[in-house]
Amino acid sequence: MQQVRLRLLERAASGAEAPRDVSAWAAVVASNLAMDWHRARRRQERIGERLASLRPPEHTGGDSGEETKVLSLAVAQGLDELPDAQRQILVLRFYADLPVRGIAEELGIPEGTVKSRLHSAVRALRTRLHEDEVV
């Protein structure tokens, strides 16, 4: 409801006419917001499914398996701390193995934006891993 109110205030602030039937307008806006939320959630689920299908089989035995688990956990925690836009770019590039052009098309943003976000995300994740002394 807050988003619907915010949209109404933004509309009034921009000088647009008030809707004839505010309750009908609010219902349509609320419906659109709900659909957007569900689409975004489904998109995240599809990315999770793609990641799960790309996950390599577990290694067994030895210290290298433990080191891999520690590194995987640290990377996952580092990804969780990134802003959504950067995390999304990293996941699509390195887990889904999409090229920059494919990511740009998938997200509907310019290739330069993909490159910039990718660079910033890698730098932030690298810094995080060094701070935690994982790498």
Structural write-up:
The mean pLDDT is 81. The chain is mainly α. The protein is elongated. Helix content is 79%, strand content 0%. The relative contact order is 0.08. Helix 1 (2-13) crosses helix 2 (22-54), helix 3 crosses helix 6 and helix 5 crosses helix 6. The protein has helices at 2-13, 22-54, 62-81, 84-95, 100-107, 111-131.
What does the secondary structure layout of this molecule look like, with pairings?
Elements: H1 2-13, H2 22-54, H3 62-81, H4 84-95, H5 100-107, H6 111-131
Give the structure's gist in a few sentences.
With about 140 residues, the chain is an all-alpha fold.
Q: Whole-Å distance between the termini?
A: 46 Å
Tertiary shape: elongated
SS content category: mainly alpha
Largest sheet descriptor: none
Beta content comes to: under 5%
- Total beta-strand segments: 0
Please bin the fraction of helical residues.
Answer: over 70%
Helix/strand order, N-terminal first:
HHHHHH
Oligomeric description of these chains: single chain
Radius of gyration: 21 Å
Count of DSSP H/I helices: 6
Mean pLDDT: 81
Low-confidence stretches: none
